[in-house]
Amino acid sequence: MRLTVFSDYSLRLMMFAASHEERLVTIEEVAQTFGISRSHLMKVANLLTRSGFLKAVRGRSGGLSLIRPIDSIRLGDIVRATEPDFAVVECFGSSNACRITPNCRLKGILGSALRAFLAELDAHSLRDLVLRPTDFGIPQLSN
């Protein structure tokens, strides 16, 4: 299984915001820090705001901040909010046309693996990913 780039960027944005809890962070500085598309990151921030992970403050001195304490934000919740689906193989999806589905044992094994994957993410909060601001490897932009 591979997470989408959208989920990857979501986790990076959340890590960055958690590492800078004392202030608002901007899309520009996160995009620059990770070398990723500003426009794509805006879509990520929009979804994370709508999903209740981030608070957006508009205006000249605006930015993003976590809406909840980092200990209460489970990594599994972020991934569930950002992944379009968890159809690891065809038979997990609604348009399953696989001929061996009624007799296949793969779906059960992969289903167990997916549940274990999500359970592991649920066992960790955003606190487990927090880095010091200097750990991001480039000088931070000043507000």
From TrEMBL:
GO CC terms of this entry: cytosol
As one GO molecular function, the record gives: DNA binding
* Pfam families linked to this entry: Rrf2
For this protein, the record's InterPro entries field holds: Tscrpt_reg_Rrf2 (IPR000944), WH-like_DNA-bd_sf (IPR036388), WH_DNA-bd_sf (IPR036390)
Say if the entry is tagged with keyword DNA-binding: yes
What PROSITE patterns is this protein classified in? Answer: HTH_RRF2_2
Instruction: Cite the NCBIfam families for this sequence.
Output: rrf2_super
Write down what this protein is called.
Answer: Rrf2 family transcriptional regulator
| Native species | Paradevosia shaoguanensis
